[in-house]
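Usage

Read records sequentially. Each one opens with the input sequence:
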Amino acid sequence: MNDQRIDGYARALFEIARAEGTIDQVEDELFRFARAYEGSDQLRAALSDESIPAARRQGIIEELLGGKASNTTVQLVSMIAGSGRASDLVAIVERLVARASSAKNLEVAEVRTAVALTGDQESRLAAALTKATGKSINLKVVVDPSVIGGVVATIGDTVIDGSVRSRIEQLKSRL
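and closes with the structure output:
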């Protein structure tokens, strides 16, 4: 039942953004918000606490995203939080990203790096991952300080670990 609900929300969000012609922007903004939501206990608690009135939860979204994201993104996240589905937000966004990528015949590549990448670095990385996998890539970058250096890319079930931590572990095991 919950899986169907998550799919339903993802499908609805996708169709709204596609109809408005903003699917690429909204998909990216939702992905970034979902990562921030995932990484913040305080934000998750505030948005998923149903004892907090829906209008207040929606106000939190407005405060966080207003002026930083498109109106469509703000309204979609606000709708999810207001309807009491914030606990499903990450799953909904992941399905929306998968749906949007599939519509463009792309494979989602979630890449974790210690620092933000420049546009040029993202383009080169996407090209390298396309060459390595033989699949056209929809690159989603997550800044994750635990990576230390390098990148960890997940494409479907494939993980390409080019992180410094991984290299150190490999060296340790050889010694």
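Summary fields computed downstream for this record:
- The chain has two domains: 2-100, 106-174.
- The first strand starts at residue 107 and ends at 113.
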